Structure formats: C-alpha cells, structure tokens
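Researcher: Checking consistency across runs. Here is Sulfotransferase again:
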Amino acid sequence: MPRTLEGQITMEKTPSYFITKEAPRRVFSMSRHTKLIVVVRDPVTRAVSDYTQTLTKSPGLPSFQNLAFRNATTGLIDTTWSAVRIGIYAKHLENWLRFFPLSRLLFVSGERLVTDPAGEMGRVQDFLGLKRVVTDKHFYFNQTKGFPCLKKPEGSSRPRCLGKSKGRPHPQIPSEVLHRLRDFYRPFNLKFYQMTGHNFGWD
C-alpha cells in the first residue's frame, strides 16, 4: 500500500479478501489499525447473481440447480461450489475476528446500497471518521438498470453508473431450489446477525 500522510485515508478494494483464509493475517501484519468495510447481500440472491455472471462468460454451464446440489433428491447443498460457499458469511467472519475486533469492521447492506445509497454511504463516512459529504443529492435512480447512479461530478459530462455486468436479468430458477437454498443459509444468516449485532432481514 502507498504511504499515507496525516489527514489522508488510503483505500483498496478486493472482493475476495473476505473469503480468503490467509487474508486476515496478512492485513493484520501490514497494519492492525486497518478499518475493514464488507458489503454483504442476501446469499441466495448473491449466488444466483454469481451464477448469472459466470453464465455470460461460459454459456455452456450446467444449470444452477445442478451446480448448487450435490444430491438433488436429498437436497444436499454443494458447499464446495464458490457461488454457495461465499454466502456463508458467518464462517468467513470467524476467520477475521481472530485478528480484528468487531469495531474495526463495518458491514454494509447490499440491498440498502440500492434502496438508500446515501444512508449507507453516511454509515461508511461515519465509520471512517469523515465529514458527511456524500448525501442524497449525489444520487439518482436509473430505472433501466435498477440501481442508483452517482450524479455527474463537476467537470464531467456524464454520470457514474455501475458497469454492464451489473443489473443484468437473472435466469429463471425453480422456486423449490431457492427455498432449499434459503433453508440452508438460514442458520448461517442467524449466526451472522448475532455476530455482527445487525439483522439484515434476509429471511
């Protein structure tokens, strides 16, 4: 990481940190004072979204249910499939709490980032000890994509919206498959709510 002067904050974003076993130790070795921001969303929706993104790159991919279940008859979920494994947030958090106190982590709701981006960004700014500069006036909702966009910065001709990979339609997944997956995640979600002291309302 680059050297940070007094009054500066250096940020870096890598989605795989949260689920990588070696990451907490490495980050702690670099700086035990690091603040960590984790964006989480309903693990079922996240798994379908993950599958959708992979499907665009590999159209010959097996069906979602073929990948999600080890045994479709018994409903045994395949936790070795990354799209499923990533959503077991409580397991990943346990790894981070071995090195960092909960006060060093902020969990941002992916759902609220869509419905109330300014509110969630307010929490982020508070967590980082920043003045609340980003507010409602900085966002507008893009009906086509179904996501909020940042209004154009001064000197720029266009607003900042999420890229083409975001907001694409998901394939139809049988409701029975989604129910089974929801049942699978429920105990992990409840544990995650207890660990973070925050109910994300995924059930």
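Researcher: Does this match what you'd expect to see?
Model: One thing to look at in this run: The chain has eight helices and six strands.
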